[in-house]
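Dear colleagues,

I hope this message finds you well. In preparation for our joint manuscript, I am sending the Glutathionylspermidine synthase family protein (Sulfurimonas lithotrophica) sequence together with its predicted structure, so that both groups work from identical material. I would be grateful if you could confirm receipt.
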Amino acid sequence: MVKLQKLNPLKDKTLEEIGFTWHTDKDGSKYVNDELVVISQDEAESYYSAANEIYDMYVEAAEYVIENDLFFELGIPFNLVDMIKKSWENDVHWHIYSRFDLAGGIDGKPIKLIEFNADTPTALFETALLQWALLKQNNMDENKQFNNVYEAIQENFKRLITLFDDTSTFNEHYDGWKILFSSIEGNDEEEATTRLLQQIATDAGFNTAYEFLQNVKFDESGIYDADGVEYEYWFKLYPWEDIAHDEPELATTLNTIMQNQKAIILNPAYTLLFQSKGMLKILYDLFPNSPYLLKTSDKPLEGVKYVEKTVFGREGANTKIVDENGNVLAHTDGEYDNYKKIYQEYVDFPKDENAQKYQAGVFFAYEACGLSFRKGGEILDNMSKFVGHIIE
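The corresponding structure tokens are as follows:
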């Protein structure tokens, strides 16, 4: 049974004052849970170790995919392949942040990888800021968390300049380079997340600006804001696969910009390899004995309960749970059904006394740096709730 601790929630007005406007779901229920998951220090350290080891496996698997030209197997759009290769070859294309979704880790259950949100992960605002505020609001020690997300991402921005471990030389090497941050106008959550990342980069020492994606200007010579100011770095909270399918001309222009070394795009194009759930099969093929991996195939599994997923998709859409006899036990609709499918062995999530299930999310920025949870039913969709944690 998941151990929970009740707490006084933050008021809507307080949340809105700090830019968190998506606090209430469409059915009127609160998105942020008024309980914390209680974990031990050993459990926190296990999440940390698992995420670090899994990331290393992803790096090895990505190299394998590129060397063996397995882009089609992962559902990678053909017009992004050159950018993926280019960004992978050069360390200046730095992976800023990502989030692992994991089953287990609490209630005595082993940690298992569910998927990797490597390109445009959500729940950053909640994990980095809100769960810290929840502890402070309830007069709890805000240090009793596995949560240094803000500081870790700040250090990772510095690595755009210094690369690798040592960031102490950032000021010596930084030469005024600018980062433009962009998201789609009209999405409060994505804008708040992007502006938070902008603030973190500003705190790291960069010159930064924000521009809605539709106002950013692109040509073969670079990337510009609406006033024509050129930027050396562009961070977009917009999925690479959506650029490939919905904005093919932009994909072509970005490829030229990258090949001509006119700007660096964040998160890098190679994160689409990590983002593809097709990588779960590659991982299992390469590391079948890893304790963190579930059996995964590009064909329905025989004799076991499994989950069918699309290689690209979000918020649990277009997901099926299928029993050992091929009967569909649960499913969700969505807009991603045209993508390739993968089939992952089913694993149950830890539950509370009301049979609600908990999925751990571990943020990664050079190393594992923060934990939070999502709570919901059999398939965690866009109505699942955010749950913070405390280390007892």
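For the figure legend, we might mention the following. Residues 295-346 form one domain. The longest strand covers residues 368-376.

With kind regards,
E.M.
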